[in-house]
Amino acid sequence: MTKVSPTFNYAAFNQLVRTDPLGFGHVAIALGITTTTLLSLVSGRHQPQVKTLMAIYARYPQLALENVPVPLTLSTNTPSETLDPIAQLKADVWEANRRLVEAGLVVLSWGNASGVDRQRGIIAIKPSGVDYAQMKPEDIVLVRLDTGTPLPNEKLNPSSDTPTHLYLYQHFPTIGGIVHTHSSAATSWAQACRSIPCYGTTHADVFHGPVPLSRELTPEEIRDRYEWNTGTAIVDSFQYESINPLHVPGVLVPHHGPFTWGATPQAAVEHAITLEEVAKLAAQTEALKPTADQIPAELLEKHFSRKHGAGAYYGQRK
Ligand SMILES: [Zn+2]
Description:
Shape: globular
CATH class of the largest domain: Alpha Beta
Largest sheet: 6 strands, antiparallel
CATH topology of the largest domain: L-fuculose-1-phosphate Aldolase
Helix content: 40-55%
Distance between the termini: 39 Å
Structural class: alpha+beta
CATH architecture of the largest domain: 3-Layer(aba) Sandwich
Number of strands: 6
Strand order of the largest sheet: 3-2-1-4-6-5
Order of helices and strands: HHHHHHEEEHEHHHHEEHH
Bound molecules: zinc ion
Strand content: 5-15%
C-alpha cells in the first residue's frame, strides 16, 4: 500500500514509466510537459520537481499503489514549462481519441477525432489504422489546413477520413475540433436516413433543433473523392438550411454515421457523447409513442439559450 516518505522515489517512478508506455504518455500529459522532458526528469535526480509530481498522484492514484512513495515536502518553485502549441494540439487530439473509446463510441478503429490550429494552418488527426491502445500523442498526424498534405516530418498516414475533416474546417470557420464515430444509436438513425427530432431538453441543451441528415451523395461523388464529397454534402446541407454549425454541432451522414464538432476537440467529443444519448432517447420515445410531439418551441429556446449566447446562465460564473 501507499508508503509515505519525505523523498521522492525516482527509481520506482522511473521503473514504472519505463514499463508502462501508456502510463508514461498519461503522466506527460498530466504534467503538461513533453515526453522527452519527462524522461530527463525521471532519469536524473537533479530536478526534484516535487509539486508537479504530486499532481501525478492526485490524477493517477494507481502510481501510489505501485509503491511509489508520496513526497511530504513541496517545492515552492514549481516549473512552469508548457508544451509548445503544436505538441499541445497533438496531446489534445490524442486525448480526444482516447475519450471516444472510453465513452464506448468506437468499435475496433471505426472513429477518429481531430483538432485545428487556425493560426498556423495545421490540422492534427488520428493516424490511419493505429490501434487506440498503442497510440501515443506523438503518433497524431499533422496535415496542412489548406491542402491536407502531411507536414514533412510525419511518418504515419493520417486517417482516411481526413478529407472530410479538412472540408469541414475550411467551410465552418468557427469550429476547432471534429469527431466521427459509428456509435450504434446515432448510426441507426443515419442508416434509417432520418434526422433526429428534438423531443426533449437533453437534446435542446446542445442541439438547437433536430440533428440533421446530410444530403445523399451522387454515384459520381461516391466513386471519386468520396471522403471529400462527404464533407461537401454536410456543408451543403447546413448552408441550404441556414444552420449555424455551433448551434447544431453535429450531423448524420445517410447510410453511414455521425460527425460532431465543437470549438475544441474535447467539445466535439462531448457532442458525440450527447448525440449518442439523444439518439437512444429519441428511439425509445418513438417506441413508447410513435406520434410523440417535438419539444415546444419555447422550451427549446429556453434550454438552448440558457447555455449559449449572450444571456447564458447555466453552470458557474467564470
Ligand atoms: Zn465512417
